[in-house]
UniProtKB/TrEMBL annotation:
InterPro entries: AB_hydrolase, AB_hydrolase_1, AB_hydrolase_fold. It comes from Brooklawnia cerclae. This is Pimeloyl-ACP methyl ester carboxylesterase. Pfam families: Abhydrolase_1. Residues 41-271 form the AB hydrolase-1 domain.
Length: 287
């Protein structure tokens, strides 16, 4: 791990990006930094139970060819210190603290699942910080059935344990022939990094994140018409965690947003269709 704030060497493959540390607001954040220095960085906001090692290199690496990419562990997760907040809004405050500690005044955001909730809260609190917004596998505050994510998570984790599988194979992908193949390939890609791997999330931290998600699902609806940033929304057509209809809801509420729904795919549609999603995301960022 690297603990100073020196400029990172240019690395364009996620499996080779060193884990770095920076302290701000009483928390030491673990993060990885890759891609060319300069320009507007793309900060990735991770999913429920996600650590630095849960990002698909087939999504990260092509974006990092021409964009600086930052991934980070939320407070109390992986190698980041502190206790996990029990609200999405507090997670957004932590994200702001981390981003400003790195010296960024403007960022682009690529967010997935819980990360999408956090990104929406960040934009509401600090609209001047975010230039462009990519929301994937996510939904608005008060969205139908978001408060049921815990039940789905526990059931699929049990199913995975009974079959000695990674829970993400059940949570992110359809359980048909196409989905099973995509799930196995995704999980295999997550293992490409063989050294300096992150610590897994603890049970206590997971439960607290699930409480924050339940609070988000039961919160009053936010006024998403206030989001002025160019926004790209993506999901699979059969998302069991954050129902696909909520991606359409985001699209209808966020002015001039763009929506893509991938067929025969679930929560992890952007990973199953990474060869289609990444060029779209890059074009959106470069536009």
């Amino acid at each position: 791990m690297v603990s100073d704030r020196s400029q990172p060497s240019v690395v364009t493959t996620y499996k080779d990006a060193p884990t770095r540390m920076i302290s701000a607001g009483g928390v030491t954040y673990a993060y990885r930094d890759l891609g060319p220095i300069g320009g507007v960085p793309v900060v990735f906001f991770v999913h429920l139970a996600g650590t630095l090692d849960n990002w698909d290199p087939r999504v990260i690496d092509p974006i990092a060819e021409n964009h600086r990419v930052i991934t980070f562990d939320n407070r109390g997760v992986g190698a980041t210190t502190g206790l996990v907040p029990d609200t999405v809004e507090a997670m957004a405050d932590d994200a702001f603290t981390f981003i400003r500690a790195l010296g960024f005044e403007t960022i682009d955001v690529l967010a997935f699942s819980l990360g999408g909730f956090v990104a929406q809260a960040l934009v509401a609190r600090h609209p001047e910080l975010v230039r462009k917004l990519i929301l994937t596998g996510t939904g608005p505050a008060g969205g139908k059935d978001i408060d049921k994510v815990a039940t789905t998570t526990y059931l699929d984790t049990l199913r995975a344990a009974l079959t000695r599988s990674d829970p993400k194979e059940f949570l992110f992908f359809n359980r048909n022939a196409t989905g099973r193949i995509a799930a196995k390939a995704f999980v295999k890609r997550l293992q490409e990094r063989t050294s300096d791997r992150d610590a897994p999330i603890t049970v206590t931290a997971l439960r607290t994140q699930l409480k924050a998600i339940k609070n988000w699902g039961r919160a009053p609806s936010a006024d998403l018409t206030a989001i002025g940033q160019p926004t790209l929304i993506a999901n699979g057509d059969n998302d069991r965690m954050v129902p696909s209809v909520l991606s359409r809801s985001l699209h209808h509420q966020i002015p001039d947003s763009e929506l893509v729904i991938y067929p025969d795919s679930g929560h992890g549609g952007i990973f199953q269709y990474h060869e289609r999603f990444v060029p779209l995301a890059v074009e959106f960022l470069d536009r």
